[in-house]
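Entry type: protein chain
Record version: 2
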Amino acid sequence: MNKILIILLLLPMVILFAEDPLDLGTIVIQGETATLQDTMISKAELSEYCLVSSNIDFSYSAYYSPMKFTSPLIFPDQKRSSFQLKGGLDNYTTLNAVISTDEIINFSAYLKHFEKSDSWKQNTYEMQWQPKLNENNLIFDVSKQEFPGTKIFGGFFNYNNQSLSLLENGGFLGFLDLTASYYQFEQLDTSAEDFCLNMDILLKKETLYNILSTDLLDKDISGFGSIGLKGIGIFDDVGIWCAYDSKGVYPSLILNSKFRFNKYLQIRLEQSPFISAKSHHDRFHDNILQSMFTDLEQTKKVLNSTVTLENNYLIPISLYYQATWEKDHVVYRQNSSGFYDLDTVDSIIQKGGIELAFQYWNILLRQNLEYMIAEEILNYEPLLTASTKLEFTEKLYQIEVDLQILSQGETTEGRELDTYFMLDLFGTYKLRDNISLFVEVNNLFDQSYRKYDDYSAEELQVIFGARLDF
């Protein structure tokens, strides 16, 4: 692995010279591979455009993907409505809809039905109202999800204010984000309730900032606080960070800086501590067979350091090495009922990878490759992940090809995870400015990849759809 990393780090040094290097901007790696958009670009675009957005990820991928699209909390000013209807094999149907006429009339809905067989049915119903009152952004969300053996019903309320006038005295600017969620879980013959609160406060004054994040999960208080400076000399960000929970405190440092060698080549150093999870429901998006009643733990990346070599000569390419010391890293353990309990381990995790982007004419290529080495065995997590995305865009149509390869890793039973080669296609065609038709082909070569022992990847899936804006 060390030899591989040395080769990767030396690669930009031998790139051929060009008279007119392409300027596509710098690719900034934050130490995670989950930075590219999802394969289903139509859903991603509709989520941004139609306000189907929240801090809770309701999507589920039948096979593991290193690229996850999570919509941010956004409040674009628009007075339009949009509808998207999709249907496909295995009784697959989804509907996205938004009606937005002003800052108060701002509603969205998402419906999904998927029936693989008589014994395997999935249904999702979600409604959101996102009014904006002066500088106050609000979200009211109600949802219901039904999976084999599991039902989840509930919702959340979010209050967001990015310019609190109360905190402007003395030159300070304030930001407040408050979320309260309530969910009822049913799994097999067991049921439970979950109430969570999350509050994020940010104070800024010139280069000085202070952040406080607090979570109430299962009657336990946890979160983190930090204080630092931005834009000081060669440092983009430098400060002190400390996470806390019922077990103790976890201090760390924040340090982000970059050193430029010339116009095209620079090294970026990052130490960005991190704490995960806001509620039980937040994590319910990868393995729908997880047990809803295991203890909730928050992963703390106390050490989360990344060294990135960024090259913008000829093609933007980033090579990175990341070392993390993770407290309470969440892993899956299969139980006798066929579901998976959540367990935690403390582990040192190392990752090395490459990201590049190349654009010529109307063609855009994005490539990501990453290899992971962990001190502990992280069940159901592949060690090698690769993704290649090719986009071709014309005035009236767009074609996308998405290839994903995952390899190595093992299950709780010691079985090595299958290597899978998953190819997805997506195409869209504009009939008019406000009417689009599209088709999605998932798992084109009908790969039978099985990440979890009780659930395999979807077979060849063909989906047709239409989108109407007015």
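Comment: The CA atoms of residues 62 and 455 lie 8 Å apart.
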